[in-house]
Amino acid sequence: VSVQIQVGYDTDVEQLLPKIVELAQKHPRVLPDPAPGAIVTQLAENGIQLDLGFWLADAEKGTGGVRSEIYLALLRYCRENGIEIPFPQRELRMRQYTQTASDSVGQEAS
Questions:
Q1: In the chain, at which end, N or C, are there fewer CB atoms within 10 A of the end residue's CB?
Q2: pLDDT digit string (tens) for 28-42?
Q3: Residue 105: pLDDT band by 50, 70, 90 thresholds?
């Protein structure tokens, strides 16, 4: 099973990766062997994409609940430690429009 999280570019990822592995290790359904692992998967447009992978002792009981609990633990950890979870942002630039002589052709002067 794996979960993905994206963190801001200011994040010390080398320090964060072992911390998120610890979060998975604490979950009672996550197997200790093979051990959970976390890697950087992408330097994305809005942040650094991380993947946390782990094996479940009882996958036949479903994975959605465990994934949700791991995501909540990740969110809580990031909030408690000031780690940014980025979201898409766009910059809008407004150019000042100036009327040219060709723009005013056919318009009556006031």
A1: C
A2: 999 999 999 999 999
A3: low
> What are the start-end ranges of the H helices in the chain?
13-25, 64-80
Q: How large a percentage of the chain has pLDDT more than 70? A: 90
Q: Which residue do the tokens 């946390």 mark?
A: 52
Q: How many C-beta neighbours within 10 Å does residue 23 have?
A: 21
Amino acid identity of 102? S
Q: Band the pLDDT of 11: cuts 50, 70, 90.
A: very high
Q: How many residues does the chain have?
A: 110
DSSP state of 45: S
Contact 79, 85 (CB under 8 A): no
From CA 15, how far away is CA 82, in angstroms rounded? Answer: 13
